[in-house]
Design goal:
By secondary structure, this protein is of the alpha+beta class. The protein is built from 8 helices and 4 strands, in the order ααααααββαββα. The chain is globular.
């Protein structure tokens, strides 16, 4: 399958109560005329998630690479949603994606995603978790370090010892849980943009 052939309703169906609801939503966005930000965000999220989904074919067990793509999505979608046209401010817009677009449930999940027993710090706040994920992204982009960060596999009840740019700790979140937050957050952003469009 080619990246241009993503079946968007099927791809985003996990964020909707049914396949029919996903198809109706995507079809409504696709019918919008011109370079509508909501349509751009939907397509960008699908492309980056699709690429992240295929990383395991070439680098199995390296979740830092998927996290890089997930945070590219968070940054791009937030910049589109909030109309940012400049350069830089990546961390700011990644934080805004999780703080202003994602749901309270997403933030709750992030707040229990990591702990640092060495510093006697239990679960962190969700924004500390976001900063950890951003540090992982920076490790990959700036240091080519994609091999020290670990997340548990789906169905594995054991937390994972892991390392990121800012330190060591324990990851309680799985990669699929994080992927779902990014997927659902992207749909929430598109819905937010649609709600701001006059006449819709």
């Amino acid at each position: 399958m080619h990246i241009a052939d993503i079946n968007l309703p099927e791809f985003f169906s996990a964020a909707f109560p049914s396949g029919e609801a996903a198809r109706a939503f995507v079809d409504g966005v696709e019918r919008l005329n011109g370079p509508v930000p909501a349509k751009l965000a939907l397509h960008q999220a699908a492309r980056m998630l699709w690429l992240a989904d295929h990383i395991n074919e070439f680098a199995n067990g390296r979740p830092a690479l998927q996290i890089l793509f997930y945070l590219i999505i968070a940054e791009a979608v937030a910049k589109i949603a909030f109309g940012f046209r400049g350069e830089g401010r990546s961390r700011t817009y990644v934080r805004r994606f999780f703080a202003e677009i994602c749901s309270e449930e997403h933030r709750r999940q992030l707040s229990i995603a990591f702990s640092m027993p060495r510093t006697h710090q239990g679960n962190m706040t969700y924004d500390q978790a976001v900063d950890i994920l951003y540090d992982v992204r920076c490790d990959v982009v700036h240091e080519a370090r994609y091999f020290g960060f670990h997340l548990a596999e789906e169905g594995d009840p054991h937390p994972m010892l892991t390392h990121w740019g800012g330190g060591d700790g324990i990851a309680h979140m799985t990669l699929s849980q994080l992927r779902r937050i990014i997927l659902e957050g992207s749909i929430l952003a598109v819905k937010m943009m649609l709600a701001q469009m006059p006449g819709l």
